[in-house]
């Protein structure tokens, strides 16, 4: 990103090839995805602090400067995480406990749906997943908001660089195939006829090493306290909304609270040892 911005400020133009597809491996566990998103939102905020003077003094057009500062940095990496976190995780549930406070329906429904449509427009096949996408993105706003603040103010976690753990496979079928190959190789290992004493000794040593190898224990689910705290707040607000006959708020708070609960208990994604 740093190289791309410096090239853009020096007048270089980029051509994006939309027909080119590149295979990649996505994070398999929530912990890996969480660290990846923290890095992707903390890094741009640090880059924004460093590049802002260069952007303002560059010779590119004013509208390009505005696009770079307002849309690329502030809107995507600062405003949207702040909006999602404060509105849906803090303000909305707290209004249920304050009778004088009231949020209009369009703030809760229309604005998030409109923003989601803008994100899904480039890939129409993702339209059926718009509801889980909204719920999960609101949940991830906690991580993104923390990353944004740490990167903007140079806090301790902004200097962490954790490489996303990879499992070396692209699908479940790859894992099954690898297991079958390993099983076949193990079953085919035997002592051939006429083997020498040294080969027999080597085979026994390999067998003993395999038997003495430590058993891989499945990782215990990690507990995320921030997500669990917000889950209890949202679920309590949903009960309050049900008692006060506010149907729209109830359904949103219920589903969002359950999503936070699943994430807080680390029940999303695979458990990688």
TrEMBL record:
Coarse class of the protein's main subcellular location: Golgi
InterPro entries (alphabetical): Glyco_trans_2-like, Nucleotide-diphossugar_trans
Domain Glycosyltransferase 2-like intervals: 1-104
Membrane topology: Multi-pass membrane protein
Protein's cellular compartments: Golgi apparatus membrane
Domain of life: Eukaryota
Record-level Gene Ontology MF annotations: glycosyltransferase activity
Entry annotated with the keyword Plastid: no
Protein keywords: Cell wall biogenesis/degradation, Glycosyltransferase, Golgi apparatus, Membrane, Transferase, Transmembrane, Transmembrane helix
TM regions (residue ranges): 68-97, 103-121, 249-268
Biological process annotations from GO: cell wall organization
Coiled coil stretches, renumbered: none
Annotated GO CC locations: Golgi membrane
SUPFAM superfamilies linked to this entry: Nucleotide-diphospho-sugar transferases
Name of the protein: Glycosyltransferase 2-like domain-containing protein
Source organism per UniProt: Gossypium harknessii
Organismal lineage: Eukaryota, Viridiplantae, Streptophyta, Embryophyta, Tracheophyta
């Amino acid at each position: 990103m740093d190289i791309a911005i410096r090239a853009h400020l020096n007048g270089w133009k980029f051509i994006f090839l939309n027909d080119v597809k590149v295979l990649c491996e996505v994070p398999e566990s929530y912990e890996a995805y969480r660290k990846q998103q923290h890095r992707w939102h903390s890094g741009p905020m640090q880059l924004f602090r460093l590049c802002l003077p260069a952007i303002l003094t560059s010779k590119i057009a004013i509208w390009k400067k505005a696009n770079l500062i307002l849309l690329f940095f502030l809107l995507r990496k600062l405003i949207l995480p702040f909006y999602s976190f404060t509105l849906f995780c803090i303000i909305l549930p707290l209004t249920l406990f304050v009778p004088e406070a009231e949020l209009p329906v369009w703030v809760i429904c229309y604005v998030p749906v409109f923003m989601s449509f803008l994100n899904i427009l480039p890939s129409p096949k993702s339209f059926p997943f718009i509801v889980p996408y909204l719920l999960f993105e609101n949940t991830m706003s906690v991580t993104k908001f923390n990353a944004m603040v740490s990167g903007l103010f140079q806090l301790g976690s902004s200097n962490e660089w954790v490489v996303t753990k990879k499992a070396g496979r692209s699908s479940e079928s790859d894992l099954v195939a690898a297991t079958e190959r390993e099983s076949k190789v193990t079953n085919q290992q035997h002592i051939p006829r006429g083997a020498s004493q040294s080969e027999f000794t080597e085979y026994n040593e390999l067998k003993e090493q395999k038997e003495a190898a430590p058993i891989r224990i499945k990782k215990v689910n990690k507990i995320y306290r921030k997500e669990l705290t917000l889950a209890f707040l949202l679920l309590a607000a949903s009960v309050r909304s049900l008692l006060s006959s506010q149907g729209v708020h109830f359904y949103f708070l219920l589903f969002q609270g359950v999503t936070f609960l699943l994430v807080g208990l680390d029940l999303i994604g695979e458990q990688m040892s």
